[in-house]
Amino acid sequence: MPIDRALRALAVTGSVACLLAAAPAGAQQPAPGGAPAAVPAAQPPPAPGSALYGRPDAPGAMRLAPIAPPPIPTPADKLPVAKLKAPAGFKVEVFAAGVANARSIRIGDKGTVFVGARLIDKVHAIREKDGKREVKVIASGLHRPNGLALHKGALYIAELSKVSRIDAVEDNLDNPPKPTLVNDQFPKDEPHGWKFIAIGPDDKLYVPVGANANINDPDPNHYAHIRRMNLDGSGMEILVRGVRNTVGFDWHPTTKELYFTDNGRDWLSEDVPEDELNRVTAAGKKHFGYPYCHQGNFRDPEFGWGHSCADYEPPVALLGAHTAALGMRFYTGAMFPAEYRNAIFIARRGSWNRTEKLGGDIVVAKLNPDGSVKSIEPFLTGFLENNNYVARPVDVEVMKDGSLLVSDDFNGAVYRVSYGG
User: Fold this and answer.
1) For residue 44, what pLDDT is reported?
2) I need a surface site. Which of 97, 135, 221, 345 has the fewest CB within 10 A?
3) Would residue 68 count as lying in a domain?
4) 227: helix, coil or strand?
């Protein structure tokens, strides 16, 4: 289903700063003495795995590039929490600052909040100690430790090409041991190599492997799928294929069906394709279209020839073009009103390759009894202001008291959303 008009209105219009005008190609400026100056060396084209690979030469497109976060976490008193808006009755506050590049969130049995990262080498823990909330590093020297999962006291950490584990992690926060390798049989490609991981109702660890380029037709046994394996790293198998880049998934609390977000390809246009919310059903197809079909109804102009979108599983909802739909969780808490029970909170980090940015918010997908999507509505907004990001949400997690945590990798912070008194 197309995303509601209300979501599109969340993208505030504005202009992207113009680049300085460049001299025409091949032009030479006179050198002292009248000799022609040397022609500047041409810049090499982006590598196939670069986010800029395939970017059109049009001036508007050439202004668009990934948005770097500030070099250090934003101090707590400078965080834009006052700009974040939730429905009436909800309260938004800073849960923790100084959590550099805060990405995936997991909560331990004893209440410790663990936070992964993509751009730095560290995993952080947030705990209550002596009446104060403390942020500390529990693992370092890692390569893109984005994904985290917890099971019976063990913290699983997914790096670019491997998964490791720290046993009894909450009992050893002051002196955590080095992670123990679980499995290192994953590709080492940087594009879409960072991982979101989770442990399913079957007690297996689910690990996605993204496509190793913006758009390509890779070996389906190595890329563009979701795998699962036993908790000791054995029994690796591919569950679903045709998944370009999922950085968020969860299981329906009742049906135990897997739902996941997927980011669409870049550089077709500013408005196509849309990111997806997908559902894995027992009777459904086990291929979700990449690279042949996008958003369930759009054949890729390069790889779609000879393929029909009818051959692939369609999304259950569309989440906007280039919105970077990432972390998602079913709401299983008791704090929020009943309308949110078993709904899906989805973090849309926000677009960078759109002139008018879209996303930068938390939306909620409310489901019908049969598991289809009834509506997608704004929930937490204000991350995007005057077409610029003041914060960028990455993941969500439900606390034991029913409040919702939201990570912000742009400012290096975690926010808490609560309801009522």
Assistant:
1) 80
2) 221
3) no
4) strand
Q: Which residues of the chain have pLDDT under 50?
A: 2-37, 39-40
Token output for 21: 């005008």
Supply the pLDDT for residue 21: 32
The domain total for the chain is: 1
What DSSP string runs through 151-205?
A: ETTEEEEE-SS-EEEETTGGGGTTSPPPPEEEE--S---STT-----EE-TTS-E
pLDDT given for residue 41 in this prediction? 55
Q: Which two tokens stand for residue 303?
A: 């790889």
Q: Does residue 182 lie within any of the structural domains?
A: yes
In this structure, what CATH number is given to the domain that contains residue 121?
2.120.10.30
Helix, strand, or coil here: 347?
A: strand
Between CA 124 and CA 98 the distance in angstroms is 10
Sign, Cα dihedral of 233, 398, 371, 253:
positive
3-state secondary structure of 63: coil
Instruction: Put residue 382 in one of left, alpha, beta given phi > 0 → left and psi -120 to 50 → alpha.
Output: left
